[in-house]
Queue: 4 jobs
Job 1
Amino acid sequence: MRRPGSRVRWCVVASVFLLAFITIVDRVCISAAKQSMARELGITDLQFGWVFGAFTIGYAIFMVPSGWLADRYGPRVFLAAIVCAWSAFTMLTGLMQALVPLFLVRLLFGLAEAGAYPTASRALYNWMPASERGMALGLLNTGSRVGAAVGLAIATFIILSLGWRAAFFLLGAAGVSWAAFWLWWYRDDPARKPGVSEEELRHIRTGRSEAQTSGAPAERWTRIVFSRRGGLLLYQYFANNFTFFLVYSWFLPYLQQHFRLGAAQAGLFAGVPLYCGALGTWSGGVVVDRLYRRGLAARSRTLPGACGFTIAAASIVAAAHAPAVGLFVAAFGLAIFGVDFTVSPSWTVCSDLGQQNTGAVSGAMNMMGSVGSFAASITFPYLLQLTGRIQPYCYLAALFSVLAALSWMRLSSAGTAQP
């Protein structure tokens, strides 16, 4: 018997929040382990740039196929399978003895992790009404930021205590545990989940057409992705990740080398931008939903996007000229707040436009984001080696952010809100 006034949908949000936390801890552990791994395996900084980049290559390759598979077969089984797969590759990372096998394992890790966010987004599309989708997707990405911030500190502690190999073994085991829970607890259709009240089921379906609730095909995802609005949406996510991925890759090593910080102190400083990002993703989701409930459907997506990139552009230029580590971290943290303020509207637009094809559309957007991540992982060390300064990278990231802010303004006229 269904309970009145149930809130099972928010338990789904909590589950994918935890997934995002684990996902990103798995991803950033290699940044915390970089110095120990490079020293033991004899890997140079430029070679490690390709190790960081290997993940993003795999991530990009399988992003759209994984989103399509999530749409076709449902998030329950598919998400459990890919979490087990990338957890296995996480543990394999702890067994590496040379550069080439490490590159290949990180490539496979990226292939497996590619489906995480498109599939989780499809799960939230199934369970959340349009009026709450911004907050839900914001919390999904908040989990990743908190996971990275806490994960850098946790990974650093484990590495200092047990060694870098043990860190990868423990994180892989955590992922397998989450997958087992998800397969047992989650259901693709809210109507099939015990404990969901009729009242909550009606609320979940609020604003959806009969075609959407009956499962009839929505607009083809390829038409959305290759349209004008699709191109603008994809570009702005490239710009987002070009700035943000530095935190997942080179930020901690840069703090250690440039400001002469110890591993523990650098780990604490490296977490600051990620906490700023967590605040950005959460507050962006709040703003999206509040504007939407006030009848400003299109602006609820486009206004936060344009504002976030404007903040990011100004802040990263300030970071480029910060004379001390505290000022540098604060300015870069504000830049990450800005780009992460755009995350909730980005993923919400994917759900608005994709509907039953949310997985494929969000996969295409996230694929372009991974291209930005790969570009950052390679561009940063090369520019730093070429010039000896961080300014060229910061100026390039600021330029991309300005163009992304303009892209959100163009999206406003292209039409984005079709919940």
Job 2
Amino acid sequence: MKRFFVTALLVACCLAAVPASAQRMTPEQNARRSSKASKKQAKMLKKANKKQAKAAKKYAKKQAKENAKANRQLRKRRSGR
């Protein structure tokens, strides 16, 4: 009796471990999943591009400031002579 119970329990555990998503996916489900994935990818790409543009703008602003400072110092040195 115990062997039967253990065997039945083992079989039940094995059947429960099989995922429900292992079934074949319909074309509609596949299209929906694909669409969602592409939207997510586009959103991430847009966010990364935005972040990169912001960093480039910040770098350009910093370079312009440093260039202006260097020019002021150069004019000051030349006029002091």
Job 3
Amino acid sequence: MHRKTGARPASSSARERNPPGHKGRPETVDQKTRAALKKDKFVTTTTHGVEWARENRQSLIVNGGILLAVILIAIISVVVYNARSEAASVAFGAAMQAYQTPLAQSAEPVPPGMATYSTAAERAKAANALFLAVADKYGMTPDGRTARYFAGLTYIEAGQSQQAEATLKKVASGWNGNLAALAKFALAQLYRNTGRDPQAIDLYNQLSSRPTTTVPYGLAQLQLADLYQSEGNADAARKIYASLKDKDAKGAAGITAAEKLNTTSNPALPQQ
């Protein structure tokens, strides 16, 4: 007799791979085990962090102290700079007020209590001392740098050419392009007034090659043309005027150049 054959019982390995309730899914670590592993990992990481902090406690304190000191220094520096800038602004305003004081013989009324000056040179000398004081005390502030430029101008008005040249050269070498251009422009005029036309021409060319807001290309070129005209070099002057007329026909420099061209091309007839 043959035995009745039935379904073959699952092997123990199969049962282990597919326990009841998983219906063919591979065995996974249960949630409690995973939570325990995550907890162990967190504890380990935290423990290492605490140990590292304990070992490097002195270094952390030192670094934290340095950072705090840097922040405090930065805050104090800003406060001090703002205070000095405000003081410089007040002092510069006082110097400008002296510089703009009407002369005693002018028809313009002078406010009560304001000092008066009989000549422009006398007024310039008084203002110059005030501008120099602002520049020397607050030289790192914008008003302090501007004050040095005005010190150069007042030196010129006071007839002190050497001091004016030295002061304006210092401003001209500064990092502020607009202020440096103004100083070069003033220097060029000083050179013209003292018979040093080649140096003035060099400065006008520098200003033309690097125009700024304070001294644009057209202004530098007009001054250069005027210098050539004063030297009797009419051809060089006309060449500059013609170029400006073409490049800036509707601008102030172009219009002025066109007027200059008409004047030089059609000189006034001598009176009988």
Job 4
Amino acid sequence: MDEAISIAKTGRLGHGEVASRATHDHGFSSQRFREVLGHYPTGVTIITAIEAGGRPTGMSIGSFASASLDPPLVAFLANRDSSSFQKILRANSFCVNVLGVDQQSICRQFAAKGADKFTGISWRPALSGAPILEGVVAWIDCEIANVFDAGDHQLVLGRVRALDIATSDSPLVFLKGGYGGFVTGARRP
């Protein structure tokens, strides 16, 4: 999973990630910060793009959100040191692929460093050329509108150019270090 997920949710440091376990001047440790934030569920997405030369690239992201209805904007956070993220920035456009509850293995595949993340993955191009992964719940094709510094991450705003719902499956959710789904209409007894 992207460092944004692995650090904030699992409490484990990702490769190349520098984080102190010591208590900072704000009164709590990085470990405590990750533990508390791990109690907030996030959807899991794969951000994809096409590199110069036509090669697909992508990364797992758990920090995706709608940012504005007018104009239609979405946002995600990515570790600024991620090589996949740097490729996506250079592409200047991307596609958000909302994973379904049964696509946990795809999340893990796109979280791996150094491997060909598209091995065995079927996809088709969005209008931008960025990959729409087969079997996703929904996809959102965007161009990069702005990028902001956010500590050890960068916040990307994407201007939505096209989008669609691909299946009626439940989305993949990450919570307390594990994956699961969400059942709508469920109520406590």
